[in-house]
Design goal:
Length: about 600
């Protein structure tokens, strides 16, 4: 008995000594991690320095932070499908003026860096379950985090302010996934389940594509808990029950919203859900190619729709997806990381690249969520390379450095609208939207002649677009070609007008052109026509007041300005015009 106690005491002392010896090593490990995270933050800002002050573009221009006099009350911002996302924009918002874009970009980079930090722990945990040797596991996890941070395919998600929906929702999604992965045992505790559910809800309220989380957790439990078994799924039914119910309820609500959405869902008229699926069978391979060879990126590529499974090689893309999926399943035990990564990639792409149509059939930012799957596939290949740790680290470092160089080059494109749309037009020369946006970028920059020439090139692609003809006319007016401007505006009157545009809009613009050319009778005639078309359009009276003022009729001008202010008291141009008239009247006194 005495000997047993002595032996037990020795074992306890040995365990205590081992724990004591491990503590300094663990402390050093955390110090290395903290230094690495700090260096990663610096690299993130270095890589995205060119776009930190970039102006708003595309969807940015229709967001609440770009609306004049938008209410600053938080409750107004939190309405809608994505209140968590809108809360972050509210924190950046400066009411009452044109706010700088740098705070918005700063937040995007910080959130992206936080995503990379979380990615390190996600990958490290999965590698631990895959029984990858500890030292190599740290190297591979750091490599995965660095690639996620600095890969050029991420540029659109980070440099485009409206794509914060990707960066923020994926951060919350991965934090929920992290809480699931780092549970203490195979069964999720009540606390861990609550954390997963709370983070999942926040992710879904940032962007709807994160509703796929329950499926990813099911896949993860099958592969790793304890391994190619449904035991872990059965063990965690208390988590999956509310997850699946919540995900299903949210999915039904989103589908209801998408039912009448003109840009996403089954109401899209340009193509059916089946045609969208055929197209995605090709698009997915393009995404995968860009992950491996990140060249030829494009904000708005010209991707033709596959109307049938035979169009544009859709059948080859579908056959390849089926073949690789079959191989991944058959060899799942031999290549568990690669197999799991493949199915995770397809699963995380499913919300945007499967059956629910989106107006834009392709967008690089849609790869932000599935990136983790591709990283695991890469590690599956790399871990089979029989080389020294030093050589492995050096090669991986070179890969990351090359990717950072490409990211900096791509980020420079996002530094302003003109280089962004020039690059896009170079890749999609026959697509209407990039050409139109490039012309608009020239016009906004004051390059009116170049804008008019670019509008002419865009007109050759689509000659019956109302917006194009109006903007072309305004560019010609800016370039001091009033007769050509009037001709384009008259053409615009023959085209279908958007529902949100007043019937008086074009005639008011014609009057503005005549007024700039000091052809006042023609300007007043056009304004008379505009008033008949829509008596409640405030700009008609603003322009008429301007014509009166230019002709020396200050009293008539003031009356018109006041009528415009009654119709729209929030128009700053009208308020400025009234201030000018008031100063002129005081000067005469």
């Amino acid at each position: 008995m005495k000997g047993g106690r002595t032996k037990g005491a020795k074992n306890a002392a040995g365990r205590a000594a081992a724990v004591a010896a491990a503590q300094p090593a663990q402390g050093r490990r955390w110090l290395v991690f903290a230094l690495g995270a700090f260096v990663a933050l610096g690299l993130a800002f270095w890589a995205y320095q060119a776009s930190l002050d970039a102006p708003f573009v595309l969807d940015d221009l229709s967001m609440p932070y770009m609306q004049p006099n938008y209410p600053a009350a938080l409750g107004v911002w939190l309405r809608g499908l994505r209140p968590v996302l809108m809360f972050t924009y509210w924190l950046n918002y400066t009411p009452g003026g044109d706010a700088p874009t740098s705070p918005y970009h700063l937040w995007n980079v910080l959130l992206h860096w936080a995503d990379a930090v979380v990615m390190f722990f996600l990958v490290r945990r999965i590698l631990e379950w895959a029984k990858v040797e500890a030292r190599r596991s740290d190297i591979f996890a750091a490599f995965a985090a660095a690639v996620f941070l600095l890969h050029p395919l991420q540029t659109e998600s980070v440099a485009y302010i409206a794509s914060r929906s990707e960066v923020l929702s994926v951060l919350l999604f991965n934090c929920a996934f992290l809480a699931f992965l780092y549970r203490r045992n195979g069964a999720v505790s009540v606390g861990a389940a609550a954390a997963v559910l709370a983070l999942f809800a926040a992710a879904a309220l940032s962007k709807e594509h994160t509703a796929v989380l329950p499926a990813l957790l099911l896949l993860t439990d099958y592969y790793w808990n304890p391994g190619f078994s449904f035991a872990g799924i059965r063990r965690n039914w208390k988590l999956y029950a509310p997850l699946v119910l919540g995900g299903a309820a949210g999915g039904l609500y989103v589908l209801r919203v998408l039912r009448n959405n003109p840009t996403a869902g089954f109401a899209i008229k340009e193509f059916s859900w089946l045609q969208y699926f055929f197209t995605q069978c090709r698009v997915i391979w393009r995404y995968l190619f860009l992950f491996v060879v990140p060249v030829g990126q494009n904000l708005d590529p010209d991707v033709p729709v596959s109307r049938t499974v035979l169009d544009h090689g859709a059948i080859a893309g579908l056959a390849a997806l089926v073949a690789v999926s079959a191989a991944a399943w058959v060899y799942r035990k031999r290549f568990p990381l690669g197999s799991y990564g493949w199915f995770a990639t397809l699963l995380l792409l499913a919300p945007t690249s499967s059956l629910v149509p989106l107006r834009d059939v392709y967008a690089e930012r849609r790869m932000y969520l599935p990136f983790v799957g591709l990283l695991l596939i890469s590690i599956e290949l790399l871990r089979r390379w029989n080389t020294s740790t030093r050589t492995l680290g050096a090669v991986l470092g070179v890969i990351v450095a090359a990717q950072m160089g490409l990211t900096m080059r791509r980020d420079a494109v996002w530094a302003g609208p003109i280089p962004l749309w020039q690059d896009t037009v170079a890749g999609s020369p026959e697509k209407f939207r990039p050409n139109f946006q490039l012309a608009k970028a020239y016009f906004d920059a004051g390059a009116c002649g170049e804008a008019a020439r670019q509008y002419a090139r865009t007109f050759a692609i689509e000659p019956h677009d109302f917006r194009l003809l109006v903007d072309w006319g305004l560019a010609l007016d800016c370039a001091q070609q009033p007769d050509e401007a009037i001709a384009k505006l008259e053409l615009a009157k023959r085209e279908p007008r958007p529902d949100n545009v007043s019937p008086a809009y074009v005639d008011s613009q014609i009057a503005k052109v005549y007024g700039t050319a000091k052809r006042y009778p023609e300007a007043l005639a056009a304004l008379g026509a505009a008033e008949k078309e829509d008596p409640g359009y405030d700009m008609t009276y603003l322009y008429r007041g301007t014509v009166f003022y230019q002709q020396g009729d200050a009293a008539g001008a003031e009356a018109q300005f006041r009528r415009a202010a009654q119709l729209n008291p929030n128009n700053p141009a009208t308020q400025n015009a009234l201030a000018v008239v008031e100063r002129a009247r005081q000067g005469r006194r």
